[in-house]
Every structure is written in C-alpha cells, then in structure tokens.
Write a structure and sequence with these properties.
Layout: H1 2-16, H2 19-39, E1 48-54, H3 59-70, E2 74-80, H4 86-92, E3 98-102, H5 106-111, E4 119-122, H6 127-155, H7 160-167, H8 184-206, H9 210-214, H10 218-224, H11 229-259, H12 267-291, H13 295-306, H14 309-312, H15 324-330, H16 334-347, H17 356-385
Parallel strand pairs: 1-2, 1-3
Antiparallel strand pairs: 3-4
Helix pairs in contact: 1-11, 2-8, 2-11, 6-7, 8-11, 8-12, 8-13, 11-12, 12-13, 12-16, 12-17, 16-17
C-alpha cells in the first residue's frame, strides 16, 4: 500500500508539470461542458418559419391557412403566388424551413367527395424541421378532415353524437416518458458530457507509462513500486480514477444542475456505476500507454478508438439498424455499455438487475486491460534487464 501511495503522489506531481493535462482536467469540464449546454439552452425548437402558396384562394383554403397559423410551432412569414418557382424559394429565402402548397380546385374537389392533398415542402437538410412540420400538418389536417366528414354526416340526418363516434371510432392518447417535453438539452448534453468524461480519462491515462520511458524515469518508478508490477498498475490507475470521479462529480453535481438538467433521485446510488466506467477507461488508457512507447502514436490510437464512441453508442442512431460490423464494433467501446446503464438506470430509474449485462461488459474491459497491461510491463522489464 505504501508503494501505491508513493506512486500516486508522484503521478500527481508529474501531472502538475503537464499543461496539456490541466487543459483536460479543468478547461474542458468547466469551459466546454458549459458551452455545450449553452448551445442547447433553448431545449426545443419554439417556432419554425414557413411560407404558404395558395392556388385555391377560397374561404376553405383560408381556413386551412388559419389552422397553419394557429399551430403552436409554426409561424407563417411569407405568402407566394403561383408564378413563384417552388425550387427557388428555399434558396432565395433561407429562413423559410417549409412551404404549405394548396393546389387549385382544392376546396371544390373536397366538396365533390374527391380526395385532395395538402402538399408540404420541407427543408429536410435539418431533420428536426422536417419532422416537426410534417407532425403539425398531420395534426391539423386530421382535425379538418374529421370536421368535413362530421358535417357531411350530420347533414344526412345522423345525430351529432353518433356521427362523432363514426368519424373518430378510435382516439389516440400518447404519454411521453422520461423526457416529456422533447427537450434537446435533457437529451443531448448528458450524452456529450459523459462521452467527454470517457475521452478525458482515457487520454490522460494514455500518456501515463510511455511518458516514463520518454523521460528515462521508468527505473525510478520500478524502484518506487518495490519491484512489483501490480503496484505500478494500481498506483497509476488510482490517480486517473480519482481525477475521473472528480470530473464526474462536477458533471452531476454542478454542470447538469446549472444547465437545468433534471437530477434523478437515484443519482447518488448510480455513481458506483460511473466509478466502474471511469476505471474501465483509465485501465484501457494505461494499456495503450504500455503497448505504445511513442506518445504520439499512443494518442493517435486513443483518438481513433474514442472518436466514434458517441456515434456508435446508439445515442443518435439505433445500433440494431447499423451494419453488422458497426454494431459489433460498437460493443467494443465502453461508452456503448455505459450509455445503456445511464438510460436504464438513471433516466428510467430501473433497478440494478436491469444493468447487470452492461456492468459485466465493463468489468470484462477492466480484466482485459489488466491482463494486457501486466504482460506488457513484464515485457518491458525483461527488455530492460537484457
């Protein structure tokens, strides 16, 4: 234990002399995390600017336009005539994200019992706008369609209550759980802060052992460890675990509350899973540091391994829908397993029994890193002795 303590103190002293380490430990957690939060501070899109092209110009088409304007997420900012070219509208008016096109004879065809279409053009280069405009259009068009059918049935002498049931025999009630307001701040920022936590710990640990070779201080480390490989591994691991947990506590006790992200009741009990996650990345970082004596190569390997973590984790696109190789590779990244525990354990409030497979996966990462690291240290020691 004394050797581990001495290595711990020594590593902290060495970190103080590395300015790049302080950038990772202080600047990114305080600066970048809060900056990312400020980007999504609005939480959700409040208004989408759209245009209308009405070629029908009837009282009914005006009623359709009134329904568009009444939609809480839509604001009509322009009206165009039939002479305007549809394909040029989005280019000449970049603020317009959608266009509702009411064709000629729209109301006439409806009164004749023919099916008509309200055409919605969307600038789906941003998928949020496209989905929102379609959702709003579907909502008020369904209401208008039901109103037309209801009027037709009542004119035929069918009682209003009976006609209403005929028009809407089934009603849908949706209840959004865990993020009922579809707030992107609540959705994205926890993912961004925790994936950066992984990268910070990993990158810091990646320069832990190879820096000893670069500064010719490995022999000093070996003597301080009392000639015990385990003391080197656990002494170094303890440093980056402590740093990682300090950053994790900063995230959950300061960054998230300051940004207004709701804190779950079981956050405190969830921190032990965060601890396993931090140890996993510190262990893998140490392993890379042992396998690659050249610090530049080690950092490149760490970057290539960590950079796809957010995309491959299933956070932005379901893993099950990825090609076979990508879904397989996703499970080789610790963040994929941590994200599942975060969603199931912290956001959904599930019990530990639901988290066991992901916890086991992270423990296997630690075991793998431990075996490779000890074997690598033995190889270096034999090479030094020869």
């Amino acid at each position: 234990m004394r050797a581990i303590k001495n290595i711990f103190v020594r590593e902290i002293t060495r970190l103080k002399a590395r300015s790049s380490a302080w950038v990772l430990i202080i600047f990114i957690p305080l600066g970048i995390f809060l900056y990312l939060g400020s980007i999504y501070q609005e939480g959700a899109v409040s208004k989408v600017e759209v245009a209308v092209l009405d070629n029908d110009k009837t009282p009914f088409s005006q009623e359709v336009i009134d329904n568009i304007q009444a939609s809480p997420k839509i604001e009509i900012v322009a009206y165009f005539s039939s002479e305007d070219k549809l394909d040029n509208i989005f280019l000449s008016h970049p603020e317009i994200k959608g266009l509702y096109y009411i064709p000629e004879n729209f109301s006439k065809n409806i009164m004749l019992g023919k099916q008509e279409k309200l055409i919605v053009y969307t600038n789906s280069s941003n998928i949020i706008y496209g989905n929102l405009l379609y959702k709003e259009a579907a909502t008020f068009i369904n209401t208008l369609s039901a109103k037309i059918t209801l009027t037709s049935l009542t004119l035929k002498g069918i009682p209003y209550e009976k006609a209403l049931k005929m028009v809407m025999p089934i009603t849908t009630q949706t209840r959004a759980l865990f993020n009922p307001h579809y707030n992107y701040l609540y959705y994205l920022v926890p993912g961004l802060t925790t994936v950066l936590l992984q990268m910070i710990v990993f990158f810091l640990a990646t320069r832990s052992i190879n820096s000893e070779f670069k500064s010719d201080s490995f022999q000093e480390l070996w003597n301080m460890s009392e000639h015990n490989i385990l003391n080197i591994f656990f002494g170094k691991l303890l440093v980056y675990t402590v740093i990682g947990m300090m950053i994790a506590l900063l995230i959950f006790s300061f960054i998230h509350p300051v940004l207004g992200i709701p804190t779950a009741k079981n956050t405190l009990s969830f921190l032990w899973i965060v601890l396993i996650f931090v140890i996993t990345n510190a262990s893998l970082g140490l392993m890379i540091s042992i396998l690659f004596k050249d610090q530049a190569i080690a950092m490149d390997v760490a970057f290539v391994y960590n950079s796809p973590a957010f995309v491959f984790s299933g956070f932005t696109f379901p893993i099950i829908a990825m090609p076979a190789f990508n879904s397989w590779y996703a499970n080789l990244i610790p963040y994929t397993h941590f994200l599942k525990t975060y969603i199931k354990g912290l956001e959904m409030g599930n019990s530990f029994s639901f988290l066991i497979p992901q916890v086991i996966a992270m423990l296997l990462f630690i075991l793998f890193a431990y075996i490779i690291s000890t074997a690598g240290l033995m190889f270096h020691l034999k090479k030094m002795a020869s």
